[in-house]
């Protein structure tokens, strides 16, 4: 039985990788606060997401551009609502099949090629590769531009 209760560690890794592998059009470095109280979450969401998005859309309108931040926040809030049940409950995954498969793989000649044990998983490397894949294959961004984005973001820190 594999018990994963390290949301805070995983969150820290993802935030760190988001900073090291920034998306081209981000306005500031990402951060993530985990709160258990729904009221506190709603207040923080209002102050940290909705209000800045509203103000940004006003500036975009004044500059003659199309406002888009409130639309993005709407999709973000829908994503949070859709995943809330899964992220707010404790889950236990039984891995009997994987354990049996690991025993069988150990008997193979090339057993060092197949890695099935997540205890040895390098989550930082996984998250970095995941972020690079999102950048390159989903958002179609040039990975070579990361240094330019980092320099631009460092002006705001």
UniProtKB/TrEMBL annotation:
Fatty acyl-CoA reductase C-terminal domain location: 48-141
Keywords carried by this UniProt record: Membrane, Transmembrane, Transmembrane helix
Protein name per its UniProtKB record: Fatty acyl-CoA reductase C-terminal domain-containing protein
Tagged with keyword Transmembrane helix: yes
Record has Membrane as a keyword: yes
Entry's Gene Ontology cellular component terms: peroxisome
GO MF, any single term: alcohol-forming very long-chain fatty acyl-CoA reductase activity
Transmembrane segments: 46-64
CDD domains in UniProt: FAR_C (cd09071)
GO annotation terms (biological process): long-chain fatty-acyl-CoA metabolic process
